[in-house]
Amino acid sequence: MVEKIPIDLLIDNGTVVTIDKERRVIRNGAVAIKKNKIKEVGKARLLKAKYSAKRVYDAKNKLIMPGLINSHLHFYHHMHRGLSPETLNGLGWSDFVHRRVATVVDPQDEIWGGLGTLLETLKTGVTTFLEAGSYNLAETIEGVAKIGMRGLMGRRSFDHVSQGHDMLVDSTQKCLAANEAFMKDYQDGVGLVKPCIVLVGMGRCSDTLYRKSKEMADDYGTVLHMHQANMLENIQEAMALHGERPVEHLYNIGVLGSNVVMVHMVHVNQKEIGMLAKSKANVVHCPNTAMKLSYGMAAFGRFTEMSQAGVNVAIGTDASDCSNFNDMVRLIYLAAVTPKDYRYDPAAGSAEKALEMATINGAIALNMQKEIGSLEAGKKADVAIFDMHRPDWVPLYNELQNLVYSAQGNSCESVIIDGNFVMEKRKVLTIDEEEVVDRVQFQAKKMLKKTKIPIYSEWKWS
Ligand SMILES: [Zn+2]
């Protein structure tokens, strides 16, 4: 008898959605894990015959997915959720939260807001994130890394007052020096969280800051993360300033590249799509924010055209105070259905395309495609397991259709990151969930005292 190969964990007898090159979906499948890596993915009977596992996780009636990748979220913005009037557009909203709230944010807001965001998104199957800008970097990276998720984070940087937005603006030198110091001090990361370069983007950065930040990202082998082309006003401003549209301008000054991640990107024309494809710059679509802040996605969005042109499009839940949720399953649903409606074409979006955006495309955007984004031998053991034996999952004919269009995010049962269970049967093992909820609410009380923002509502409250 051939001796079995020892492994640490066998996730046994579920439906495995690999998102490998062949896009195999394996019913009665299994995933073999040794230490922090995937050893093999295949039919359960074959893997059971081959491996002897220290632990077997029974995945009958479960869906086994690559850990989801939330390619754009914010930490401290979590502390402003529900504070601003919902009648503000993108510029009005940004001015409101940054003038009234962000200026009084303290390290505890960043840590607990960060943990609150990550906890919420983790519980819907997310294993990896790209964060969009903090201020108290040392405290924040040390604080949020405790949750055990994989991610990149950086400093919220901008050096140019645009359309009256002057809250928290720094000099070019300060932005560059602070970003470089963070890259140097935390080169090895804390836990699984590593630093990257974050710019606010849009009209709020000088050409020098864009260029030097791209050089820095190249030098440190990291990602340059920024917002671009959210609103029509961004286009009008760039045209007035440079005589070029925003993406066109960044392309012409040499800032685009495969390590650049550009978020929102609602107002991009066909010429700019060509520039994105040519430069291999990545796009992150946030359909929840686009709709809530009236970015005009239905009228102007060209995400389907971007994908067709070969541009890598990932998705992210964005900031809790504008989007306003971090449930990745809910976001996947929006990424799949919105183009069907605004293109008047049911084939413009699909379950499969939306799931690629939430997994392998996110991995490409974060420059981690060799490590994560699919369930394949040799990749990191980042796995999300969904329970399909629930009202929202039956009748079950097609697992992908149900995950994207029917399932609730809380049907995520367990999450494994780097080979370790971070959530098991809905219980988070790395941090005290109750404590995070209490601390977010405690910080919120302090926030309300400091900002004195009233409740904005059409109704009478007492
Ligand atoms: Zn954002």
Commentary on this structure:
The protein is an alpha/beta fold. The protein folds into two domains: about 5-65 and about 375-430, Urease, subunit C, domain 1; about 75-365, Alpha-Beta Barrel (TIM Barrel). About 35% of the residues lie in helices and about 20% in strands. The chain has 17 helices and 18 strands. The strands form three sheets. Strands 1, 2, 3, 4, 5, 15, 16, 17 and 18 form a nine-stranded mixed sheet that branches. Strands 10-11-12-13-14 form a five-stranded parallel sheet. Strand 8, helix 5 (about 170-185) and strand 9 form a beta-alpha-beta unit. Helix 5 runs parallel beside helix 6, helix 13 crosses helix 14 (about 350-355) and helix 14 (about 350-355) packs across helix 16 (about 400-405). It is globular. The mean pLDDT is about 95. Zinc ion binds near residues 74, 263, 318 and 319.
Topology of helices and strands:
Layout lengths: L4 E13 L7 E10 L2 E7 H7 E8 L3 E5 L1 E6 L16 H11 L6 H16 L3 E6 L5 H8 L5 E4 L18 H14 L7 E3 L1 E5 L5 H14 L3 E5 L3 H11 L3 H7 L7 E5 L5 H10 L2 E4 L1 H6 L4 H4 L2 H6 L3 E4 L12 H15 L8 H7 L2 H6 L17 E5 L11 H7 L6 E6 L2 E5 L2 E2 L4 H19 L11
Bound molecules: zinc ion.
Zinc ion (ZN) binds next to loops.
